[in-house]
Amino acid sequence: MEKKVTIQDIARQAEVAKSTVSRYLNGGSVSPQTRRKIDEIVRKNQYIPNTFAQGLKQEKNRTIGVIVPRLDSMAQVEMLRGLDSANQNDTFLIANIYQDPIRELAAIKKFIAQKVAGLIILTANLTDEIRQTLLDADIPVVLQGQDEPDFARVMMDDQQAGKVVGQYIQTLAPKNVLILNVDSKLDWAVGYERFQGLKAALANIPHQEIITTFKRQTAKLDAAKAMSQQHYDLVIGATDAIAVGAMQAGFELNQQSYYLGFGQSVYSEIVSPELTSFEFNFFETGEQIYDLFQKIRNEANIRPLKIVIPGQLIRRASTKK
Amino acid sequence: MEKKVTIQDIARQAEVAKSTVSRYLNGGSVSPQTRRKIDEIVRKNQYIPNTFAQGLKQEKNRTIGVIVPRLDSMAQVEMLRGLDSANQNDTFLIANIYQDPIRELAAIKKFIAQKVAGLIILTANLTDEIRQTLLDADIPVVLQGQDEPDFARVMMDDQQAGKVVGQYIQTLAPKNVLILNVDSKLDWAVGYERFQGLKAALANIPHQEIITTFKRQTAKLDAAKAMSQQHYDLVIGATDAIAVGAMQAGFELNQQSYYLGFGQSVYSEIVSPELTSFEFNFFETGEQIYDLFQKIRNEANIRPLKIVIPGQLIRRASTKK
DNA sequence: TTGTAAGCGTTATCAC
DNA sequence: GTGATAACGCTTACAA
Fold first, then answer.
1. Which pLDDT value is given to residue A1?
2. In this complex, do A115 and B50 lie within 8 Å of one another by their Cβ atoms?
3. Residue A49 near chain B (CB below 8 Å)
4. Least buried of A130, A255, B145, B220, by fewest C-beta within 10 Å?
5. What is the pLDDT of residues A230-242, one digit of tens each?
6. CA angle B286-B291-B293, nearest 5°?
7. Residue-level pLDDT at A4
8. Mean confidence (pLDDT) of chain A
9. Looking at the structure, do residues A148 and A286 belong to the same domain, yes or no?
């Protein structure tokens, strides 16, 4: 039953032209009487305009495509919340691409075909093909997490993060440091930038760097392997999840160590001892991303802007005697 | 530059009619030569078909709208992963509605206007208006978390959960039980069903029920208030997050108690002691949801199906002496 | 204020 | 195998 009711049907029943109904729908000038009449009919028929037909004409759209590498990350989810919070009048289409560049490209193309008003990409790493597709599409794009000079972008200050943590490390005077990092090819900001800042601090301290993944379980296994071979009195994880994995490995090995992570996670205040961590406010970051998007959407041909979000070191029990 | 390139442009450059290009695009019969020619031009121009125009014609769509009440929940995210994993050939549009029925209705209407192939709703509670809108839309709908007889649905077996936990409780022989529940108006399955099963077990045990929220922080505060007034030797949280909040409150009050939660969370294996919890496999649930969706999409007018997902009690250190 | 009519980009139906 | 041509449902000049 319930075929699809079109603007034509409404017009017929209201005994007006469909252009009048269209005007009514878009706040054009309509006399109070016809307005009331249409009002009623629209309600009675539960009429919902066909977005395809609308989109076909307007080539405009209050829809923003959002690319999310992974949803099982508090950082990402918080940023989404921030987006929603700052959101004025847009609809977000979220594509979870599981850190897969193939999926990412496909999702982006799909968004473009859907004529989204723009793209917000919470990315870890941009392939050349994706970069080119984005450039060609010529729509507003805001990147997060990747310092691409061609695009507007919001970055976490990972260099500063590394530096601050580096300074803090000095005060702990560790004898032997284990660093659990991720592949910088997978996430440049985390894998590279963040640890650049640490370098100076580590210059005179024995340390070893191991590459693991973002998954706590994997990190735990990798940490256990390393920590069973020698003792580290300070373990630094590239993320909180990694640090927590290491902490669990350390406990099982009955080792005493300091632990330190990065990011803002559900973990830090849950584990005991609570985890010292360099934290960013991802919710606020999300809001900033949206604001930046608004800016570049409204001012065409603006020079690619870059916003850097600072963070701060939260000292908790995991680095206390 | 890069205006939008249409099928017309391709046709002109290839010196064929646009209907030929259309056939080419949709796998119709085209001679090898023209095929090659169009091939090249399409690639050169980076042509992407306009989904609006397509949608307008086809009235069909490989897009499924997914309503998610909250993204900061491992259960939800796992189900999304399950959906993606089972996904054959569809695109999911995710709307995060922050447990807000107003947002939910708006999102659903928007999806319908977009002529989605169907709706998957991970809901906590359905308002009458939403139910009616769904019914009127007459498209495939799969619900999760709400036992609505008019819809196909996938349910966690919350009654069984309560019952199993109830039996287990007996073996713990608690003297005084604190239950931290959520408002059943907000989430019937969790707030009501789940604790129905517990009732029998609690009949002869002194217990108190307190209503709190899904947020760990709030639960912690509410738990602290209750636990500072009297001692409970067993604390049951309606979710893991709630149980962990209570656990933290208990530690700060220096109290000794058993703790027990529900759900599958990042928490259970992170806290110490690790949390005993009745767990569901939400990833698999997501896969089941998608399969069910496929079924009702293909067989019109099928009687509303109901799938119940069992769970199991995972005993961990938090309920051990 | 209202109606008429011309598209928007695509697919589908026919002739050729 | 190919090409006109008519929809699809809506917006928008332009007339009335």
1. 36
2. yes
3. yes
4. A255
5. 999 999 999 999 9
6. 95
7. 74
8. 89
9. yes
CB proximity under 8 Å: B 299-318 to A: none
Q: Are residues B268 and B180 in the same domain?
A: yes
Residues of chain A with Cβ-Cβ distance to B109 below 8 Å are 48
Nucleotide nearest residue A9, measured CA to C1': D9
Burial (CB count within 10 angstroms: exposed 0-12, middle 13-18, buried 19+), residue A186: middle
- B1 in any annotated domain: no
Between B4 and B241, whose confidence is greater? Answer: B241
* Mean pLDDT score, B214-229: 95
Which residues are A235's β-sheet partners? A178, A259
Answer with the one of B22, B41, B56 that is the final residue of a domain.
B56
Average predicted confidence (pLDDT) for chain B: 89
Range of the domain at A273: 158-279+314-319
B298 and B220 within one domain: no
CATH code: domain of residue A50: 1.10.260.40
Amino acid (one-letter) located at B284: E
* Res A167: pLDDT: 93
Distance B20 CA to C16 C1' (A): 14
In a domain, B2, yes or no: no
Residues A91 and A146 in one domain: yes
Distance from CA(B19) to C1'(D2), angstroms, rounded = 8
Structural domain contains residue A1:
no
Residue B60 backbone dihedrals phi, psi, to 5 degrees = -135, 165
Do A114 and A130 sit in the same domain of this protein?
A: yes
Same domain for A27 and A40: yes
B312 pLDDT more than 60: yes
Which of the two residues, B227 and B25, has the higher pLDDT score?
A: B227
* The nucleotide closest to A47 (CA, C1' atoms): D9
Give the per-residue pLDDT at B110: 83
B106–A contact, CB cutoff 8 A:
no
Enter the pTM of the model: 0.81
Q: Is the CB of B54 under 7 A from strand C?
A: yes
Number of domains observed in the structure of chain A? 3
pLDDT band for A288, please (50, 70, 90 cuts). very high
Same domain membership, residue B33 and residue B70: no
Strands A276-279 and A312-314: antiparallel
Q: What's the Å distance between residue A66 CA and nucleotide D11 C1'? A: 28
Rounded Cα distance, B159 and B239, in Å:
15
Pairing state of beta strands B141-144 and B118-122?
parallel
pLDDT at residue B2 greater than cutoff 60: no
What pLDDT was estimated at residue A60?
67
Q: Say whether B52 and A98 touch across the interface (CB within 8 A).
A: no
CATH of the domain at B224: 3.40.50.2300
* B177 and B263 inside one domain: yes
Residue A203 lies in a domain: yes
Q: How many Cα neighbours within 13 Å face the side chain of B3?
A: 5
